[in-house]
Amino acid sequence: MIRAIVTDIEGTTSDIRFVHQVLFPYARQRLESFVTEHQHTPEVAAILESLRDETHQPQATTADLIDTLYRFMDEDRKSTALKSLQGMIWREGYVSGDFTGHLYADVLPALKQWHEQGIALNVYSSGSVPAQKLLFGYSDAGDITGLFSGYFDTRVGAKRETISYQNIGKQLGLEAEQILFLSDIHQELDAARAAGWKTVQLIRGDADHDSVHPQVSRFDQISVESV
User: Fold this and answer.
1) What does 193-208 look like in DSSP terms, one character per residue?
2) Distance (Å, whole) CA 49 – CA 58
3) Could you say which of 51, 60, 101, 218 would form a disulfide bridge with 106 (CB–CB 3.0 to 4.6 Å)?
4) Of 128, 114, 11, 29, which Cα lies nearest the Cα of 70?
5) Which of 216, 171, 223 lies closest to 189 in space, CA to CA?
6) What is the secondary structure of 67-101 as a DSSP string?
7) Sign of dihedral through CA atoms 116, 184, 157, 59?
8) Chain-centroid distance, C-alpha 95
9) pLDDT for 47-69, tens place per residue?
10) How many CA atoms lie within 13 A of 12 on its CB side?
11) DSSP single-letter state for residue 222
């Protein structure tokens, strides 16, 4: 019996184009000015220091770190420091109404149904936890954060590593087979299944012929009773 659902965001609950065509350019355009302006605040200073540790450059200047962050963006590096700064910049965009978080139309009704059934809903994304809460807090459908009981990012581990799902399972306090993971990426689902989780793959675009996971194109095609 499924007692918890953990969902990815990009390509699963939300169009990946929203992230790549709206969120990423917004953060890139504002990164240098944001970091320069806020570099001495405790939160940003701590992030920059963690970036120095991550890159093994203890003497790196703020300008050096900004260059590194741009390079990480170009590489689509899953850097916790970068994700944290992006989340802080996106907050300004959400709050000012520059954009709202995209949700596929089929997502919210299913989430509400599962929530009413007593299934604990959680998020696991490479984006930072604050960024996740912003997307769902300022979504096209309004603030839906009340539906979720937990949020996880790369601080629990990379999304293609089995230990990450084991870590989440420990925090949820459930048996592995009681947890269902939803994602559009079969390598992430492979890692979750290796941890003993149930899996369903969301196919929002082209079919994934290399996947061994059950595939659906909409949330309302997911039956938690038969997973």
Assistant:
1) HHTT-EEEEE-SSS--
2) 8
3) 218
4) 29
5) 216
6) HHHHHHHHHT---HHHHHHHHHHHHHHHHHTS--B
7) negative
8) 19
9) 999 999 999 999 999 999 999 99
10) 25
11) -
Q: Under 8 Å CB-to-CB from 206, ≥6 apart: which residues?
A: none
pLDDT digits 0-9 by tens, 190-223: 999 999 999 999 999 889 999 999 999 999 999 9
Burial (CB count within 10 angstroms: exposed 0-12, middle 13-18, buried 19+), residue 194: middle
94 neighbors 101 (Cβ within 8 angstroms): yes
Question: 166 is written with which tokens?
Answer: 């084991």
Contact 41, 157 (CB under 8 A): no
The token pair that represents 128 in the structure block: 């930072």
The H or E element spanning position 36 is helix 24-38
81 sits in the region (left: phi over 0; alpha: psi -120 to 50; else beta) called alpha
The DSSP output letter for 227 is -
